[in-house]
Design a protein that fits this description.
By secondary structure, the chain is α+β, with helices and mostly antiparallel strands. Helices cover 32% and strands 20% of the residues. Strands 4-5-6-7 form a 4-stranded antiparallel β-sheet, sandwiched between helices.
């Protein structure tokens, strides 16, 4: 798999380093739905679509994830980064960084709900 480098978000065309939302959906084995990608979460079958991915410029990685199956959000984010060929994300205070995204995550949940 080719690495796509660091995340850069462009609001108007929904791309990450030249990858469109449709291409992200292919990397994750999912589909585009309402401005989000719905795909199988880590350890789920290929028919599952419980993982939601959405570009978010304000997020530390440039994207947000949500598991409708209740999977750990950090595990899901690491899973997405691996599928996109990105290096593992590291922070001195990862929990604080994740906590900053709670409001945006709640918006993603309402935007990408089934």
């Amino acid at each position: 798999m080719t690495s796509v480098g660091s995340i850069k978000h462009r609001n108007k065309d929904h791309e990450v380093n030249g990858l469109s939302l449709e291409q992200v959906a292919r990397f994750l084995g999912g589909r585009v739905s309402g401005g989000c990608v719905r795909a199988p979460g880590p350890g789920h079958s290929t028919r599952d679509d419980s993982l939601s991915f959405k570009f978010e410029a304000g997020a530390p990685d440039g994207f947000l994830v949500h598991s409708f199956a209740g999977d750990d959000p950090i595990v899901c984010k690491d899973f997405v980064r691996q599928k996109l060929g990105l290096s593992s994300w590291e922070s001195k205070d990862r929990g604080a960084d994740e906590a900053k995204n709670v409001e945006a995550l709640m918006k993603t949940v309402s935007d990408c709900s089934r």
